[in-house]
Every structure is written in structure tokens, then in C-alpha cells.
């Protein structure tokens, strides 16, 4: 049924071993002593110790200054929130766009350009009749340092999606121009 080598392997695993495995406990090494005598340390040893301590103090001071700098930079990084002019109903996801108003809806009386804050306090969602309090403003987040928003070619104040569109749109335009070069021949 089995080949002789497989039978031998099965027998080796099934037969009890005559050797008992006994784990040996871990024995830590005794600490190394720098000097075997009980004499007080010499001036050379104390100078080496003080030199080592001063190097450690200098390194700790350098690390503390680096941490302060990191904390300062993190406090400058802000996420600027820019209004999109869109307010979304939290109940039914209807979006009131200030640029469009709500005249396209049945019973809509607000013309395009009407800001959400100037709507009547009893304004209701045209689809689910939720109150004005149920709407939440949709905002864009722009990550980066506030002090850097004015630099660049206007790209520092762009959102992530706008930057992606710019990058991949540029790559697509280059690709089209590259292929157009083959069409000219």
C-alpha cells in the first residue's frame, strides 16, 4: 500500500523516542565588573564618565530642540476649509446649490444665486420636508501650511482632486501630443 520509505517515516514518527527532551533553563551571565578591586575609581574613570555624561546631555538637548521644532511645524499645518456653496440634506442627500437655487424643484421659490443663509428660517427640504437645520455645508479641505498658501502658481491652494486632475490631465495631453507626432509622418 505504501512505499517502504514512507512506511519507515511513519514508524519513526509513531514509535516513542528513547531520548527524553529536557529543556535547560536560561542562565543569565553575571554582570561584568570593570574593575576587580574595591578601590575607588581613578580620575581617568571619572573623567571618562563625566565626558560620557556631557555627550549624553548634549544629545538630549539636541533631541529636545528637534521635538520643539516638530511641534512648531505641526502647529502651523492647518487644513483650510473652503465653502463650495452646496448644502446637503442629511436625511435624503438632496443638495441645495446656491448657484442654482431651487426653482427647478416643484414648489421652489428661491432663484439662482440665493445664499443658504438668506433662506427663510422655515425653509424645508423639497424632497423630504426636513427643516433647514438638517442641512450641512459641503466644504473642501486644502492641506498644507497656511503661510505657504500664496506661493507657487496657485497650486498650493488647490484641493487634492484638483491637483490630481492637473497632473493626470497634463500626462494625458502629453500622451496625445506624443501620438500626434507619429501621425505627422
From TrEMBL:
What protein is this chain from? Rubredoxin-like domain-containing protein
PANTHER family in alphabetical order? RUBREDOXIN, RUBREDOXIN-1-RELATED
- Record-annotated membrane-spanning stretches: 165-184
Its keywords, alphabetically, are: Electron transport, Iron, Membrane, Metal-binding, Signal, Transmembrane, Transmembrane helix, Transport
CDD domains in the record: rubredoxin
| Domain Rubredoxin-like per the UniProt entry, residue ranges | 84-138
Question: Whose protein is this, by species?
Answer: Triparma strigata
- InterPro entries from the xrefs? Rubredoxin-like_dom, Rubredoxin_dom, Rubredoxin_ET
Asked whether the keyword Metal-binding is assigned, the reply is: yes
Residue ranges, compositional bias (Low complexity): 33-50
Instruction: State one molecular function term (GO).
Output: electron transfer activity
Q: Which residues form the signal peptide?
A: 1-20
